[in-house]
Amino acid sequence: MTGGTEWIVDAFGCDADRLRDAAALRRLCDGVIVGLSLTVIGEPHVHRFGGPGGVTALYLLAESHLACHTYPESGVATFNLYCCRERAGVDWPELLREALGAARVTVTTVARGAPT
């Protein structure tokens, strides 16, 4: 038995305008949450930085958390999703190519709470 699964996702070569669009990033995160049948506790915190800055989003989940940070100046978006119970995976590369125009996506999956 483990303490769940954590996905650490980096998307490269993303469209800078999409990385500045707080509403679009919220829809993306909401879609992941609905797709995995996760439960949001309270209101998500989504902050759009001024000027050419990106977006930070944080969702507190009954199952743990989802965080997103975007860096339009370098075309990068990062995601961290931790679920305390096993869940089906997300096709992160396809999702982020479609939503953000990502050219390359890396996904690291970590089994949490597993004995070493």
Verbal overview:
The chain has three helices and six strands. The protein is an alpha+beta fold and 116 residues long. The protein has a single domain, classed as S-adenosylmethionine decarboxylase, CATH 3.60.90.10. Strands 2-3-4-5-1-6 form a six-stranded antiparallel sheet, covered by helices on one side.
Notable features of this structure?
S-adenosylmethionine decarboxylase; 116 residues; alpha+beta; single chain
Short description:
With 116 residues, the chain is α+β, with helices and mostly antiparallel strands. It has helices at 16-19, 22-35, 92-100; strands spanning 4-12, 45-48, 55-61, 64-71, 76-83, 104-112. The protein has a 6-stranded antiparallel beta sheet with strand order 2-3-4-5-1-6, covered by helices on one side.
Number of domains: 1
The CATH class turns out to be Alpha Beta
What is the straight-line distance between the termini? Answer: 13 Å
Number of helices: 3
Overall radius of gyration? 14 Å
Percentage of residues assigned to helices = 10-25%
Helices and strands, in order, run as EHHEEEEHE
Q: Which structural class best describes the helix and strand composition?
A: alpha+beta
Within the CATH hierarchy, at the fold level, what is the topology?
S-adenosylmethionine decarboxylase
Biggest beta-sheet profile = 6 strands, antiparallel
Spatially, the strands of the biggest sheet line up as: 2-3-4-5-1-6
The portion of residues forming beta strands comes to 35-45%
